[in-house]
């Protein structure tokens, strides 16, 4: 017999993922200001950005309240308001949120949720990885390039909060990538490390073999930025490789396509990408 599930928002940000239960009130205000019910501490989010209303059994509606950068659901800008469906992905500024409104066994994938810590020097490459992996149900947290990775893992190990995988741009981390891979393999063998080659779209077999010899699980080439949406097979192949490393279920193709469309919309609106 199933267990009832309280609708919730999963907020994905630079520090990881947090969960907000949508219960015990009818309206939740969302924004950067401390007076909001749901605070999104990111400068691209307006002080008063949006609101979520509970309108009846299982029905939640989100509306933008005149924010500067707008609110989006599954890549489409909210004009008036939108009735949320289970799995809807909301974008407010640079913050990604996911609405879960089904029963617990339907809302979450059958295996335990996986966590990836990612560091990349390219805003676009980083955004693509975040969107496509989040679309598959994986929690992705960004790291600052100045992060001392060994200190971070030591700290997280003390609080029993180690990630399942590290996705690291070789050109962006402060540590020697191969030295770090060897250290991580010896110290935290349960953590998988996948290296990325920055914006380079090709890596040689010898480079890949050397990275694996040094302790990485794989070395992946970058996404082809100018023709990103003309190379869906390349994108899908890279995503599949990471999901396989995580022993994750088979890729959900439609959700992947929706994520890429959301990135395409964002690129048109933001010069950062």
UniProtKB/TrEMBL annotation:
What domain of life does the UniProt record list for this protein's source? Answer: Bacteria
Q: Which SUPFAM superfamilies match?
A: CheY-like (SSF52172), SMAD/FHA domain (SSF49879)
Q: Where is the FHA domain?
A: 28-78
Q: Which Pfam families match?
A: FHA
Q: Which Gene3D superfamilies match?
A: 2.60.200.20, 3.40.50.2300
Q: Which SMART domains does its entry note?
A: FHA
**PANTHER family this protein is in?**
NUCLEAR INHIBITOR OF PROTEIN PHOSPHATASE-1
**How is this protein named in the record?**
Glycogen accumulation regulator GarA
Q: Which organism is it from?
A: Acaryochloris thomasi RCC1774
Gene that encodes it: garA_5
